[in-house]
Write a structure and sequence with these properties.
The chain is of the alpha+beta class. The chain has helices at residues 8-22, 25-37, 43-50, 54-66, 85-91; strands at residues 41-42, 70-75, 78-83. It has one domain: Winged helix-like DNA-binding domain superfamily/Winged helix DNA-binding domain (Arc Repressor Mutant, subunit A, Orthogonal Bundle). Residues 7-99 form the HTH arsR-type domain.
């Protein structure tokens, strides 16, 4: 069994990525849509509801995923996005309740 210790600096880098991703209101809107849906949603469904072009939606999904705020899985030709609740609970408890 390997135990990985995260340094304070690594924790701060994670926090920095999270806050950078959340600094864009459209990304918060994407998270709000996913929270209300309570399940994963397709990229197309999210883009249509948040009124984003495919390229803009892709850009924002990538930022959320790289910050660890969401998961993306591919099934056939469709991509599904869901919230990473564990990360929110660890770094931003109750944040999603405010949406």
């Amino acid at each position: 069994m390997i135990i990985k210790l995260i340094t304070q600096q690594q924790e701060d880098e994670i926090r920095s990525k999270i806050f950078k991703a959340l600094s864009e209101p459209l990304r918060i809107e994407i998270l709000r849509f996913l929270k209300q849906k309570e399940l994963e949603a397709t990229c197309g469904e999210i883009g249509a509801n948040v009124k984003l072009t495919k390229s803009a939606a892709s850009y924002h999904f990538k930022n959320l995923r790289e910050a660890g705020l969401t998961f993306t899985r591919k099934e056939s030709r469709e991509k599904y996005v869901s919230i990473n609740y564990e990360l929110f609970e660890k770094y931003l408890p109750h944040f999603l309740d405010t949406l």
